[in-house]
Amino acid sequence: MTVEWQGAWESVIHHPLFGIGITLGAYQLVLAAYEKTRWIFLQPVLASMLLVIGVLLSCGLSYAEYRKSTDILSILLGPATVALAVPLYLNLRRIRQLFWPIFTTLVIGGVFATALVVGLAWWFGAEHMMLMTLAPKSVTSPIAMLVAEQIGGVAALAAVFVLITGVIGAICGPGLLRLVGVHSPEARGMALGMTAHAVGTSVALQESDECGAFAALAMSLMGVGTAVFLPLAVTLVV
Amino acid sequence: MLLRGLTWLVLFQLLGTALNHLFIPVLPGPIIGLLLLLGFLIARGQVSEPLSQAASGLLRYLPLLLVPPAVGVMVYAADIAADFWAIVGALVLSLLISMAFVGVLMQRLLKHHNHPEERP
């Protein structure tokens, strides 16, 4: 009798749909919990990731097996990245008169932010692979994963660093900006979107529509700028 | 409608992949696809209905699509533990410093942009 139970359990957890099942389940559970509590630590990706890892470890499944069964989800990540062009285009059209302030902030701020994180991590003694994974941490996850992989980092870690950055930025950002005397909605939006990407943008949207629009624009510009210039810079330097 | 938009997105990504292999190995295929689509939208001056449907549909579920790759962290637990404090320190410090820097810079530039004659 017990043998049959064992067999059924084994065939369920090794079924190709099991990985997708737990991913969908965990994601919806976290979304429902977030809707209810609005707790910023319940970032859908971060919390679902922890749930899925918990399930995999308790079932004794390897990441390789889980990865294979969720291939169908991962393959859609490419077209979703291409689709980021649509919101970027719509945001670009909206804010044209402030081109120079935005462009200058983007170039100086973007280079500064990227150089700072790599410099600090290097100074604290992190190894090369970690440095390359940390470099794109201020941009939206799908882009950060591609860039990290391209320059010799690890996509999975990049996704997580990006999310942690977003959560810290969303929690500390508004207070920090007030502290340093940044009050204009455009500047607050730029700062939140450029350094804390999507999570920062959602906080900016709560402040005002204008702040949110600038955050969304800053996030997509920073994403594309990093995607294009960071691999080039790394090729030239390393 | 949705399928037609999705087809466009897939086509742009495949085009990006081809260009990646032929000429620009430095940029990942989907990024080239994104840039091509952006150029296409700027040239056309508008987003067609199927494309905007497919894009918003996919982007709505972007967090879900990101879960499987993020779970990959479990393989790198040892690497994270090895560099734990360097990672946490670099992430937090660089975030706070660069956010303040970007905010102040943008505010200064805006002031200058709106009232150029007040510059000292």
Write up this protein.
- The complex is a heterodimer of chains A (238) and B (120).
- With 238 residues, chain A is mainly α.
- Helices cover 83% and strands 0% of the residues of chain A.
- Chain A has helices at residues 2-13, 16-37, 44-59, 63-69, 71-74, 77-83, 85-94, 99-123, 128-134, 141-150, 155-179, 185-207, 209-237.
- In chain A, α10 (141-150) packs across α11 (155-179) and α10 (141-150) runs parallel beside α13.
- Chain A starts with a helix and ends with a helix.
- In chain B, α1 packs across α2.
- Chain B starts with a helix and ends in a 6-residue tail after the last helix.
- The mean pLDDT of chain B is 84.
- At the A-B interface, α2, α3, α4, α6 and α7 of A face α1, α2, α3, α4 and α5 of B.
Helix and strand topology:
The complex is a heterodimer of chains A (238) and B (120).
Chain A: H1 2-13, H2 16-37, H3 44-59, H4 63-69, H5 71-74, H6 77-83, H7 85-94, H8 99-123, H9 128-134, H10 141-150, H11 155-179, H12 185-207, H13 209-237
Chain B: H1 2-22, H2 29-44, H3 49-60, H4 62-71, H5 77-82, H6 84-114
In short:
The complex is a heterodimer of chains A (238) and B (120). Chain A has 238 residues and is mainly α.
What keyword list fits this structure?
heterodimer, A: 238 residues, mainly alpha, 13 helices, globular, B: 120 residues
Tell me the major beta sheet of chain B: none
- The averaged pLDDT of chain B comes out at 84
Q: How would you describe the oligomerization state of the chains in this entry?
A: heterodimer
Shape of chain B: extended
